[in-house]
Amino acid sequence: MLRGYLTVRDTCPVCGEALHHHRADDGPAYLTILIVGHLMAPLLMVVFTTWRPEPLTLAAIFTVGTVALSLYLLPRLKGAMVALQWAKRMHGFGSSPDV
């Protein structure tokens, strides 16, 4: 479905379904922030209270973890958002083909 990192193809290479109708916009970014924040904040608290690492070490580790998790989730959530729009026939999906 995706060509490159976040670019949605105009049509599906397997079935030919038109995908240019999608309106993902900022939804995947908001969902990524929501998920990463809810995972990393409690983990940060547990790590800090249990092991008491140096602040610079803690910041470095959690910065790398947050960026890595965000980069992993973002294209998957964009694909999920486009798939949800397709499944619910939103924004032009499921209408008569363009002539």
Structural notes for this entry:
By secondary structure, the chain is mainly alpha-helical. A two-stranded antiparallel sheet has the order 1-2. Strand 1 and strand 2 form a beta hairpin. The two termini are 23 Å apart. 59% of the residues lie in helices and 4% in strands. The protein has a domain at 24-85. Helix 1 (27-51) packs antiparallel against helix 2 (55-87).
Précis, in short:
Helix 1 (27-51) packs antiparallel against helix 2.
Give the DSSP E fraction (strand runs of 2 or more residues).
under 5%
Share in helix = 55-70%
N- and C-termini, Cα separation:
23 Å
What order do the helices and strands follow? EEHH
Structural class: mainly alpha
Strand order of the largest sheet: 1-2
- Helical run tally: 2
Layout of strands and helices, then pairs:
Blueprint: E1 2-3, E2 7-8, H1 27-51, H2 55-87
Antiparallel strand pairs: 1-2
Helix pairs in contact: 1-2
Which descriptors apply to this entry?
mainly alpha, two-stranded antiparallel ribbon, 59% helix, 4% strand
